[in-house]
Amino acid sequence: MPNFKLTIFYKTNLFIYSLLFFLSSSITFASEPLVTSNWLNDNLNQTNIKILDIRNRIDGGSIDEFIKSHIPNSIYSNYIEDGWRVQSKEGVPGVLPDIQDLQKLIQSLGIGNDDHVIIVSGGTSSSDFGSAARVYWTFKTLSHDNVSILNGGYQDWIQSGFENEIGLSSNKPSNFIAKFTSQYLAVTNDVDSAIKNNEIELIDARPSIQYSGKEKSGAVSRFGTIPSSKNIQQNLITLVNSSKLKSKEEVRQLLLSQGVNNKLNAITFCNTGHWAAVSWFALSEYLGYSDVKMYDGSLAEWDHLEKDII
User: Is the pLDDT of residue 198 over 90?
Assistant: First the structure.
C-alpha cells in the first residue's frame, strides 16, 4: 500500500523544483537593454525575436538601403517617417503620438506582445543611437518591456562579419495591445516640481554650446536652458563615430564630473526629446538608476509655454 505522506512529500517537492526552474529560466532569458551582435547572431532564428531595423536619414539609412542589405529576418520601419513621433502637437514638434496610432503602427509591423524586439539603428553616431533609444523608450511607455537595442547598430553587425540579407518581405499584422504607462514619461508639471524641490536632477542632453546659451536649435525661440539643470552631452555617452555605448564606469565618471547625484531621481531633456533618449537610456537602462524619466516635449514645449529659460 503506497505511503500517502511520502507521496505528498514527493509531489510537493516536485512542484517547488518546477517553480524554481521556471523562475530561473525567466530570469536567464529576460531581455537585456543592450545586446551584442554575437548574441543576436546566436539567437537569430528564435521565433519570438523580432529585429526592427529603424535606419533613417540621421544615419544615412532608408528603405532602399534596407532592401540592399540588412540583418536576416529583419522588419523595417523608418524612425523619422513612419509615425514614431508626431510632426507637431499643439505647437510642439516630435512628441509621443496617440497610443492608438502607435498600436496600429506596431501591429502593422507584425510585432506581438510576446515578442522580444531588437532595435537596430545605423550605428554611426550618438544621435543615431538616439533613434534606437527613442523607439526603445516608446515601447517601454507602451508597457512592452521585452525590448533591447543592438549595441553599435548595423555598423557593428557588418564589422563583425555576420551574414546579411537582401529584399523586402511582407509583415503579417499582429494583435499587439498597447497599454500606456507614465513611469518613464515626464511632463511640464514634473519639471516644475523638480526645479522647486531640488530632489530631482534635471539633465540637459544637448551640446554644451546650446546649454550655455551661445547657440540654439531652430526648434526653440530662446537661448539657454531650464533652470537648475546640469549638462550631460549625449555625444559623450557613445564612442566616436559609433552608436556603441562607452563602458558603464566611463558613463558613471561622466555623470560624476557634472555633479549628478545618482541617489536622486532624474529627468532628461533636450530640444525635442531625441538626444534626451540617449541620456535617459544611459541612466535608467544601462546604469540601472531608479525613477528616471524623459521630458518628451523637452525645451521646445518649455519654450512654447513661455516658461523661464536661463
Answer: no
Is the pLDDT at 9 greater than 50? The verdict is no
C-alpha 90/C-alpha 301 separation (Å) is 9
- Averaged pLDDT for residues 115-140: 97
Q: Which of 279, 285, 296, 260 is nearest to 185 (CA)?
A: 296
Instruction: State which amino acid sits at residue 88.
Output: S
Average pLDDT of the segment spanning 126-133:
97
Sorted by where each starts, the structural domains of the chain and their CATH numbers stand as 31-159 (3.40.250.10), 185-304 (3.40.250.10)
E strand spans, 198-245: 200-204, 229-231
Coil, strand or helix: which one is 119?
Answer: strand
In whole angstroms, what is the distance from residue 189 CA to residue 56 CA?
33
- The answer to whether 271 and 301 have CB atoms below 8 angstroms apart is no
How far apart (Å, rounded) are the C-alpha atoms in residues 109 and 130? 21
Rounded Cα distance between 180 and 2, Å, is 54
Instruction: Find, among 183, 228, 231, the residue nearest to 203 by Cα.
Output: 231
The grid cell for 237 is 555617452
Q: pLDDT at position 199, please?
A: 87
Cβ 84 vs Cβ 105: under 8 Å: yes
What global pTM score does this model have?
0.90
Name the residue with cell 510576446.
Answer: 114
Cα distances from 69 to residues 3, 65, 154, 184, in angstroms, run: 65, 6, 10, 34
